[in-house]
């Protein structure tokens, strides 16, 4: 049974502050976001390639990693990445490979991507009922204002290939503490980069910030220039990290890995040389203090829901006061908010205002079959260690 929450003037003011600070963040990183857009990679400059190939750049170290796993580089270039044989599906944390295939992610292919959704059953949701707060009242997702680069510049879409075909999640540009002002880091969900206990790393992982910047309809985008879809170009993950908890315990419904369902990407542009943060003009800090649900205050979730009644073309958001959610007594509790966003919003950042600064505090992980709420992991010491390792090892590339 849903229990509505009281939302007083204080909550409304906190929500307004969150929206205002996020919008300011989008233009506070050295000049306006529109000026930054002029420095973006030329989306039309990518050499066109079909789904089976295209131009592939395979750095020496990546080629060596492929060879270490018995994978022929030329075979991979010619479409060998489509081989999802379970015995050869790269699984371990050190196994990630993701050569750039220019022109693979065309607008039509992006739009065909299926949502990467993790839904829990009523039985799952009630497994640790005594440790969870009452189910929140649904909060109807609201479309973000356009253009997105002025209102939620750090948010975008994460595309990848799975054995079932092209898939899509959401992600957020985050700051790199060891490379200030030049971050190439993106925060998303673990299930958007790795299949969990029954699989391995997904392939052809790309981040597209401010996807469909002006929120055009499908009809309006027919025949549109690629820059309308990807105003800042495509950013390929040259490394990805997710938690051991997700790799070992993640499942189709989230499973025991849901409480550890987070990931960090290090990306590079398909075209261009500036960092992601410099190109987009914004990035958010991550709050690794792991505040309790009661301490988190008003929290907003942003993303691109793609399952009906949404179509993945527009960015949406939900604001609510989170409660505790637990899948089992032996697992860390998660945050839960009311929200009607569906699959495709997975991996999208959850933001809160702390000390006047908007910070990423979680990401969308799981939700119920009726799409009335979302749950995301609390980010603590383990998440911070993963982030710091990514920053120190790959951040300067």
UniProtKB/TrEMBL annotation:
Record's keyword annotation contains Zinc-finger: no
Gene3D superfamilies tied to this protein: Trypsin-like serine proteases (2.40.10.10)
Compositionally biased spans, kind Basic and acidic residues: 111-121
Stretches for region Disordered: 32-56, 111-138
Alphabetical UniProt keywords: Signal
Signal peptide coordinates: 1-28
Protein's name in the database: Secreted protein
Species of origin: Streptomyces prasinosporus
């Amino acid at each position: 049974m849903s229990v509505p929450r009281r939302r007083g003037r204080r909550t409304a003011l906190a929500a307004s502050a969150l929206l205002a600070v996020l919008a300011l963040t989008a233009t506070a990183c050295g000049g306006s976001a529109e000026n930054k857009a002029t420095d973006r990679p030329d989306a039309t400059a990518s050499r066109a390639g079909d789904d089976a190939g295209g131009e592939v750049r395979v750095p020496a170290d990546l080629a060596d990693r492929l060879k270490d796993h018995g994978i022929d580089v030329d075979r991979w270039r010619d479409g060998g990445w489509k081989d999802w044989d379970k015995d050869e599906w790269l699984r371990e944390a050190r196994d990630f490979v993701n050569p750039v295939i220019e022109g693979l992610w065309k607008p039509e292919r992006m739009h065909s991507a299926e949502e990467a959704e993790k839904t829990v059953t009523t039985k799952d949701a009630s497994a640790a009922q005594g440790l969870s707060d009452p189910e929140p009242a649904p909060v109807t997702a609201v479309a973000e204002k356009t253009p997105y680069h002025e209102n939620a510049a750090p948010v975008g879409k994460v595309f990848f290939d799975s054995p079932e075909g092209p898939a899509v999640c959401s992600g957020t540009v985050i700051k790199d503490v060891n490379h200030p002002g030049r971050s190439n880091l993106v925060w998303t969900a673990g299930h958007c980069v790795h299949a969990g206990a029954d699989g391995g790393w997904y392939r052809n992982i790309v981040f597209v910030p401010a996807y469909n910047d002006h929120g055009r309809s499908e009809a309006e985008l027919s025949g549109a220039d690629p820059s309308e879809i990807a105003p800042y170009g495509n950013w390929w993950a040259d490394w990805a990290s997710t938690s051991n908890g997700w790799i070992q315990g993640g499942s189709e419904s989230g499973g025991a890995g849901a409480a550890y369902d987070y990931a960090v990407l290090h990306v590079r542009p398909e075209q261009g040389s500036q960092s992601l943060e410099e190109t987009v003009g914004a990035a958010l800090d991550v709050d690794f203090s792991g505040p309790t649900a009661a301490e988190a205050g008003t929290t907003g979730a942003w993303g691109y829901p793609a399952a009906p009644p949404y179509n993945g073309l527009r960015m949406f958001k939900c604001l609510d006061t989170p409660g505790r959610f637990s899948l089992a007594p032996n697992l860390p509790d998660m945050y839960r908010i009311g929200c009607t966003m569906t699959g495709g919003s997975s991996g999208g950042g959850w933001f809160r205002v702390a000390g006047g600064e908007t910070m990423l505090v979680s990401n969308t992980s799981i939700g119920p079959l009726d799409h009335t709420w979302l749950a995301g992991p609390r980010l603590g010491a383990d998440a911070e260690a993963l982030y710091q390792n990514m920053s120190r090892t790959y951040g300067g590339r």
